[in-house]
Amino acid sequence: MPGALDLDPGDSVEQYLGNMVREARLALGREWTQSYLAAKVFSSSTRISEIERGEDPPDRDLAKKLEAVLQLSPGSLVNLVKILSQQTVRNYVKALSRRSIRSYAKTYVRRQLEATAIHEFSIGVPGLLQTGGYARGSMERGAAGSPAEIDDFVRTRLERQVVLGQPEPPWMVVVLDEAGLHRKIGGSAVMREQIEHLLFMAQRPNVNIQVLPAKTASVVGSFAVLTLPKGKRGAYTEGFSTGNYTEDPKVVMRFQQVHDLLRQDALGPRASLELMRAIAKEHDD
Asked: What is the separation, in whole angstroms, between the first and last Cα of the chain?
């Protein structure tokens, strides 16, 4: 892992962006530590460190905040984020032809990229909201393949998350089964990081996460309903090593009705955040 002084702005767009943020921060004075900047943009010092090292670039909302606070030219960071998004979309499309996406899921994954809304119920954390550690833990538990194959699966899953970073991302409503938050997928540290990521993603205006209490009746398996351009809709359901995508209106409507019923029993957004914070503390051991 490169340190701040080892960054070469010519290595990648991510590192060029990170160097811009670091240099602008230091130029503002000695009191402008990573923690100080993080407070200014309502983020964390860890997040700022990841950005400056070129490991995890900001989304467009955070890029705009950084531009304003660091007195950078409007668009200077956002345009770089757009370039990164375009690169990731190209990788996303290429990934559809790789073995790392199961054949039964390829149509669904392709439709995700164009969806205007995603309504999902999941007994675990949905792929678009997973961290690398959680994705790896779930794949290892499911004996998804060799270490090299799992590396490819994890990389592809994270690449797919560009769906939520597009200029006009879909409206995503997730009903998440509480039991899935208590399971130690990948271990305690991985689960705490995963829940913190959910809390972070829930701050986005296009992401709504509601937790279905463990004591409430649920359904078997996970499913998603996509709203596509011009009103077309599709539904995808997935189990262990199998899945099915359909655009049959009657089937799609049934899944939407089930989602609506589960959402009625789920906690509201604020109560869900409070519960997730409490569960995150359970994973401190």
From this structure: 26
